[in-house]
Amino acid sequence: MTTALSPRTPGLALPHGLPGILTSEARLMARNPALVVWVAALPLIASIVLGAIPATTRPVADLDGSSWFTAYQPILVMFSAVLLSVQILPDVLTRYREMGILRRLRTTPASPAALLAAQVILCLAVEVVVVAAMVGVPAAFGAPLPRNGIGFVLALAFAVAAMLSIGMVLASAFRSNKIAAAVGTVLFFALQFFAGLWIPRASMPGWLRGISDGTPSGSAVGALTSAIDGGWPSLLHLGVLAAWTVVLAAVSVRVFRWE
Question: What's the whole-model pTM score?
Fold first, then answer.
């Protein structure tokens, strides 16, 4: 006697309705001016400007021998990743919850998990495209490429995973779109501070750099910087990013509500 498999049988199948939801969400995301200007255009333009000025690509003693370009390239990468994760992602999901879209999704053949998967896939795709442009376009103006490309990709993967985990916690913990946006804004500035936006990590006193190493954005910049300089991301930085990702992902799954 044979039994037909249920559509809900666990396996490697994609969430039901993912292709359609992914297409729809991609169109909506493309119409978001904040995404284009802040996540893509601003860090890309800053990277091009830094890469096009010869003085910014020369080693500086105050930056431990790095140039201003190599010091700020990973910071600009994290500017894009943090903004996408703590502002764009929570904004979409909390608005959908307030409007009852998540609740209505549960009554349709489409799986609510497909919406979450679509958001994560789109955020990853956007970040990959933006980072590729931030690395490739300045190189056309004479800026150096990361000396360890594989290490750079590895560090980026760990960094983006940690940032998306933060965004999912915000989207899960707050029912109000305005509160999620306010908390996300505070987090954005805090994460950018520890990433070195205002004080580059190479210029931080030892105690502050130690605190930065314990934050997801600080460890992300540290890992990316090591790869840009030709080394491998340290186990400390990758371990910190992995720990943040696992803990925050578990928290977001625990507290997430569709209504």
Answer: 0.86
